[in-house]
Give the backbone structure.
Amino acid sequence: MLKVVTWNVNSVRARSARLDAFLARHQPDLVCLQETKVLDDQFPAPAVEGYRYWSHGQAGRNGVALVSRHELADVQRGFPGDPSPDSARVISASLGDVRVIGIYVVNGQSVGSAEYELKLQWLDALGRWVREAHSPVEPLLVAGDFNIAPTDDDIYDPAAWEGQNLASGPERERLGSLLRWGLTDLMRLHHQGPGPYTFWDYRAGAFHRGWGLRIDLALATQPLASRSTAVEVERDERKPTFGEGKPSDHAPLILTFE
DNA sequence: ATGTCACTTTACAAGTGA
């Protein structure tokens, strides 16, 4: 059995106690973290016995990392062709025969903004790299915060979000091209929509009101997707009353493979 | 849409990004 997690922690230092408790509780093989918001030499080492980390961070924003209780091979930070190479958004590594790419997609701010144009260019570049460097017949996992709700089933109020950033056609089309190449949205192998959601804005009491989005995704090629036995959102981690300290605005996604 | 959070700076609040 293989257990892999993706979690946008919104600062790994602020979430260190929760991350340790999560590791102790679930004993995942590998965790992909996003928005670590920390330089590599200031990354808080996991306190749980057996876990190591590989960080690709920067000060204050972005940042991705892999936390694993196994040795990882061929750890690669960033990717060739990144139009925004100073932003730390991608870390990839091999765990046994599985290649894992942990990603934090450009947020995009609002449709028509410069950030949104960068998001589309970034997604194009990511797609080119994935297609060039990998094959759909090899076991590949692309997991992380995509900042894209794939369909209206992934949004609490699709009408309010129609055409907006996170839900717009052009970004969904970029995601679609990855799926057509040979990646499967693992959540939908096990759960039909609407929901579950993985992100609730801190503002406006969004979590309490059920205003969620599914923007944290795990995509796998067929050799790996065929081994997928469960995909679950650890919704408790979004609760202010759960665990130690404040929650991230994202809940972890737990992937189980046979 | 916006009832928050975490970061940074030269800090003892305000701006930024999400």
